[in-house]
Amino acid sequence: MTIQVLPYNPKWPQMFEEESKLIKQALGGNCLAVHHVGSTAVPGLAAKPRIDIILVVQDTQFARQDLVKIGYLDKGELNIPFRLYFSKEKKQHGINLHMYEDKNPEIELNLLFRDYLRNDTETRDQYAELKFNLLKQKESHQKNNSRFTGYNLGKDAFIKECLAKAGFKEVCIRACSHYDEWRAARQFRQKYFFDRVPVLDPYTWTFDHKDHIHFILYQGIDIVGYVHLQLWPEQRSAMRIIVIDESYRNKGLGTHFLKQCERWLKHQGFKILQIESSKEAYSFYCKNGYAQVPFNNPDGEATHHEDIAVGKRL
């Protein structure tokens, strides 16, 4: 995979404006806002010749259909729940379109990063230097069992540093994709669950299984929580693990994370979420609308004798 980074092209904003008009015409009143983001939105910054666009809509399903009609390729969520990603190829450039419903914290994240680079030319130039250095590395042009190339992953620490300086503090949910996220997932699992046995985590094979979903919760740039979901037949699902780091507890993050997972599962067509709750966590689930129901694991495994099987219709 060859990645190309070009000097800043003053025509990039015009390319965005032309595409923005096309999108607004296609979506009509469903379109709430269209933002030019990413490196092509920062004057003077070297970038891949791809225009990044954030589209904010009222209804994602109607917008999804309309975007396909004007030539966009629907690529689904990828690693960001509640974000729909589209691409389009033109003669001289490509387009990456990121669609969100209003008030999604990822919108602010992208706008803050863009504006921070626009207002700090020294940091902008450091970012360009990082890009060119990454291009010299063989790993940057490979995916290495990841959804993303080493080039994209290699920019992560720099982006987070900028977001911290810009004051980004929103709570975001992500599917594990970066190696830092997978490392955090392993640490959460081992520290809060398997060290108690004690035994090394025997279920890391789920990291590569399509029916097991691993989410990370961010507050700002800090990873503060982790969830492991299992997708079952007949529109059922199970939450195998949900944990918030000790230093971030009693701030409502656990409830927020649980609600986001419920919402995501509902969007995917699942109707029931079931959990094997510890006695200590039972009141937490009761407060969030869960009741005792048989676990009925399709794998045939019995519920642990000290756990309480609970569930909720989504």
Question: Would you write up a description of this structure?
Answer:
- This protein is α+β, with helices and mostly antiparallel strands and 314 residues long.
- The protein folds into two domains: 110 residues, 2-Layer Sandwich (Beta Polymerase, domain 2), CATH 3.30.460.10; 143 residues, Aminopeptidase (3-Layer(aba) Sandwich).
- It has nine helices and twelve strands.
- The strands form two sheets. It has a seven-stranded mixed β-sheet with strand order 6-7-8-9-10-12-11, with helices on both faces.
- A hairpin with a 4-residue loop joins strand 4 and strand 5.
- Helix 3 packs across helix 4.
- The protein is globular.
- The chain starts with 11 loop residues before the first helix and ends with a strand.
Descriptive tags:
314 residues; alpha+beta; Beta Polymerase, domain 2; Aminopeptidase; 2 domains; 7-stranded mixed beta sheet; 5-stranded mixed beta sheet; 9 helices; 34% helix
